[in-house]
């Protein structure tokens, strides 16, 4: 039985492994802040439940740390003749097909952490807000190349209409 996510002849391009680092930094910061809050509250109002809460938060943080690596490996994109494919997800998988002729504009963005790790996010905007596609974790050179290439292909498709 074939899956709607397995497309024959499609070569997927992976995102940078630096995206794992960025997402783990954010996840770890949230876990550490939560653990500090639990520790302070446990110090002020002692109860064994606070130890259980701290252990649960730590376990959740460790699980997120592991999961981020798998999530990032599941992100990929492929440029085809008439459209761009973007896939993501492990348990809840998604595959977006964005025709070049439907693209209105392409954004490249990078926050402070992304700039420090030398990665960027490319976001495609289409006429339909529900069909926008995002490709996080691209090296800046690849993000610029993809932005320019997608813009050219989108303009060429619109001109041909």
TrEMBL record:
The keyword Transmembrane applies. Residues 73-150 form the YdbS-like PH domain. The chain crosses the membrane at residues 21-43, 49-68. The keyword Membrane applies. Keywords: Membrane, Transmembrane, Transmembrane helix. InterPro entries: YdbS-like_PH. Pfam families: bPH_2. PANTHER family: TRANSMEMBRANE PROTEIN-RELATED, UPF0699 TRANSMEMBRANE PROTEIN YDBS. This is YdbS-like PH domain-containing protein.
